[in-house]
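User: Could you go from structure to sequence for me? I need the amino acid at each position, not a summary. Structure tokens:
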């Protein structure tokens, strides 16, 4: 859907993108400073206490954390090594044109079997706009404990700091909020692309994939590519990738710059299993069982994204779900371009990102073909609850969501509660388990 954006929208988008890139680049400086605070605190202690702490190796541990931070920093710098692929140096006159797909030329020419399509210009603006309007300072997090002490007020990778798009002079100084999102991105890599994350993925993604395969059980696997599956709020893209691996045509949709930049590296610029090593657990010293637990390296990816079989159809589209797949002005016109275009929509930890869940469900319903299936798994951690930016927020309970879905035209089946974690640290002394709602819902024609 082509939309027009004002010059200030474009500028705001570019500022936000540049600030995210700066956050990646400033990670080492910021994180080393935080670790140095611990070192400085040692000087405030009595000499005998310092000696004892030295004997047990506390200072040595701080050095090891420094080293891990520097390794993380090298990885994060690779992610933002070529930010121009996101089209932010495109001339502004392109910005109100038709949507354009950029298929990484390396993918086409080297014959990799999936395409990572960033819908630049127009759609790129969509995710920028949503980023701005979705910003709020009191955000809710699925990340759980160990995520900067955020028992309920932590920051999510997709929430934009409201101050980060303001015009500034001089170099941007990333906030705690920005760094929190960056650290969440490292944990998201564990969830989606590491061996360590496999248990968490098994709990969330497997029931969804099983339900998808069951819904299309009369379709031979070699014909699955004729069926189009959408994964909104795709994060780092693993669920969408897995669905493409099953043979379906799969498109992920995501609007966070952090997620988009990070998934670009893992999907397009990685040619070996375990190519990158990250240390996602070195940022908090709380609830740590041992030095080894905190300093354990995580290798990513656990599978090679380019190993999708020839002919696979896999794409990732940047932008706000409502902007891209929704009808203009909330109009339910059946001629709408995405109307009836999808055979399945899979929402994993996504529906609670809605300001207006009614609109999300209407869109899912409208873009599905008759008989199409919506498979959901997730909690109801309403992301806009108590937001500080006057965004509207409709916060239904689970029963209400299901009643609403039926009213909109879904028949819900296969309902159950699935216990699962979200970017959890399996070796932490604290952990959250979500009692997520799972269902399969078919569109009543
Ligand atoms: C809780 S995360 C779940 C990510 C992934 N589905 C998973 O299970 O790991 C929600 C994701 O939805 C994305 N998101 C939130 N609102 C969105 C919107 N309106 N359009 C596109 N993506 C959105 C966020 O950036 C975030 O990556």
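Assistant: Here is the amino acid at each position, in order:
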């Amino acid at each position: 859907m082509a939309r027009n954006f004002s010059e200030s929208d474009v500028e705001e988008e570019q500022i936000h993108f540049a600030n995210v890139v700066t956050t990646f680049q400033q990670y080492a400086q910021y994180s080393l400073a935080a670790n140095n605070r611990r070192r400085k605190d040692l000087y405030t202690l009595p000499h005998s206490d310092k000696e004892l702490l030295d004997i047990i190796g506390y200072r040595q541990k701080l050095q090891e954390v420094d080293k891990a931070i520097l390794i993380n920093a090298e990885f994060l710098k690779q992610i933002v090594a070529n930010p121009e692929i996101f089209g932010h140096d495109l001339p502004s006159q392109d910005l109100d044109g038709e949507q354009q797909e950029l298929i990484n030329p390396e993918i086409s020419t080297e014959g990799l079997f999936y395409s990572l399509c960033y819908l630049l210009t127009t759609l790129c603006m969509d995710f920028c706009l949503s980023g701005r309007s979705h910003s709020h300072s009191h955000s809710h997090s699925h990340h759980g404990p160990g995520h900067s002490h955020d028992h309920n007020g932590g920051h999510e990778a997709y929430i934009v700091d409201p101050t980060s798009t303001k015009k500034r002079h001089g170099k941007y100084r990333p906030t705690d909020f920005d760094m929190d999102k960056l650290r969440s991105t490292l944990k998201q890599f564990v969830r989606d692309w590491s061996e360590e994350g496999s248990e968490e993925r098994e709990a969330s993604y497997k029931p969804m994939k099983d339900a998808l395969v069951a819904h299309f059980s009369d379709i031979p696997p070699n014909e699955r590519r004729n069926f189009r599956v959408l994964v909104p709020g795709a994060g780092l893209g693993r669920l969408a990738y897995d669905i493409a691996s099953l043979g379906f045509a799969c498109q992920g949709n995501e609007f966070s710059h952090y997620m988009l930049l990070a998934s670009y590296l893992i999907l397009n610029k990685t040619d070996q299993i375990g190519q990158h090593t990250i240390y996602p657990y070195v940022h908090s010293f709380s609830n740590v069982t041992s030095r080894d637990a905190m300093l354990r390296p995580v290798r990513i990816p656990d599978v090679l994204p380019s190993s999708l079989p020839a002919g696979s159809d896999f794409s990732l589209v940047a932008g706000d779900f409502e902007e891209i797949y929704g009808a203009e002005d909330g109009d339910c016109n059946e001629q709408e371009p995405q109307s009836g275009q999808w055979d399945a929509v899979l929402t994993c930890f996504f529906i609670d990102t809605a300001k207006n869940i009614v609109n999300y469900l209407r869109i899912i319903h409208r873009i599905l073909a008759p008989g199409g299936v919506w498979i959901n798994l997730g909690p109801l951690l309403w992301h806009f609850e108590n937001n500080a930016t006057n965004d509207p927020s409709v916060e239904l309970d689970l029963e209400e969501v299901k009643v609403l879905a039926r009213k909109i035209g879904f028949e819900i089946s296969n309902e159950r509660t699935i216990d699962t974690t979200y970017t959890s640290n399996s070796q932490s002394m604290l952990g959250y388990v979500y009692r997520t709602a799972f269902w399969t819902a078919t569109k009543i024609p």
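One structural detail worth keeping in mind: The longest helix spans residues 58-79.
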